[in-house]
Design a protein that fits this description.
Number of helices: 7
Radius of gyration: 30 Å
Largest sheet: 3 strands, antiparallel
Shape: elongated
Structural class: alpha+beta
Number of domains: 2
Strand order of the largest sheet: 2-1-5
């Protein structure tokens, strides 16, 4: 130790500096740049992981032919008040193709997400269109009264179309700079919607 201290005092060299003074300003700036690049890369990896997780997950595990679709029937649980102001609950059948042609256009080129009211109840942009379509099927019973759908039924439809490859989850930055998670059409969904619209017109 005495010899080292003697050398440091008598023959100072570039190596004899304090550890916190060993790095140049350029080194510090580069370290900050690398830390920022690492942070951005980690954020990008997390985003890609979410995207991969949100993509279609059926693959070979569940062939698409085994999924409900096309003219298969899905029943919505609908509630409303009758003439005596008593709640009525009934199930209204609709074909999957019919449901998709109702909710699909609202996602054409857009990412939509649930908007929540003061009660904490959320609904998608297509909810009013779906309610209107269902109303026409039970108009003789519900007449002009308000009808309500089961939120779980709508979520089931979203998940089903995701599994069919028609829609996917994506994130979007809103006007406030916050990331909003919503749903949008895939290329397959856009094709299917176009085909179904053509068939409907013909």
């Amino acid at each position: 130790m005495k010899s080292l201290m003697h050398e440091m005092r008598v023959r100072p060299r570039l190596g004899w500096v304090r550890a916190d003074q060993a790095r140049s300003k350029e080194d510090l700036e580069r370290e900050i740049e690398l830390q920022e690049e690492l942070r951005q890369a980690q954020g990008h990896i997390e985003e890609l992981e979410r995207v991969a997780r949100d993509r279609i997950i059926t693959g070979d595990e569940i062939p698409r032919t085994q999924l409900a679709q096309g003219s298969d029937i899905f029943e919505f649980t609908v509630s409303y008040k009758d003439n005596s102001k008593q709640y009525v609950i009934e199930r209204v059948p609709m074909q999957w193709d019919e449901i998709f042609t109702i909710i699909g256009p609202s996602m054409y080129g857009y990412i939509i997400w649930k908007h929540y009211d003061y009660r904490g109840r959320g609904e998608y942009k297509f909810n009013p269109n779906l309610v209107a379509a269902i109303r026409t099927k039970i108009l003789d019973r519900c007449q002009g009264r308000q009808i309500e759908l089961n939120d779980a039924d709508i979520d089931t439809c979203v998940m089903q179309f995701k599994e069919l490859g028609y829609i996917e989850y994506e994130e979007k930055t809103n006007d406030e700079g916050k990331n909003i998670r919503g749903i949008t059409l895939t290329e397959e969904g856009e094709r299917q919607l176009t085909i179904k619209k053509i068939k409907t017109r013909s």
